[in-house]
Design a protein that fits this description.
Layout: H1 5-14, E1 28-34, E2 40-46, H2 52-64
Antiparallel strand pairs: 1-2
Length: about 80
């Protein structure tokens, strides 16, 4: 059986475990899309069974929370 979009995202995030022996409990993703006529749109998706208040909290913390390290060169989330 094929995985849903949420299932595929879940598996992808789990493959990037940041801490030994940690367990993924929830996630939130924002994606930007551009149409051929250059209009941009944002979409949002959360892990299954995530309440809307949790989802909004994850996005708020991502924007305004303190980063664990000020050295973003260590961060591998951008694939570089």
């Amino acid at each position: 059986m094929a995985l849903s979009a949420q299932g595929l995202i879940d598996e992808s995030i789990k493959a990037s475990q940041p801490l030994p022996d940690s367990r993924l409990v929830a996630w939130a993703v924002v994606a930007e899309w551009e149409t051929p006529d250059r209009h941009k749109h944002l979409t949002r998706i959360a892990s299954p069974n995530t309440a809307i208040w949790e989802f909004k909290g994850y996005l708020h913390e991502a924007l305004y929370g303190l980063w664990e390290s000020a050295d973003l060169a260590r961060w591998s989330g951008n694939g570089r």
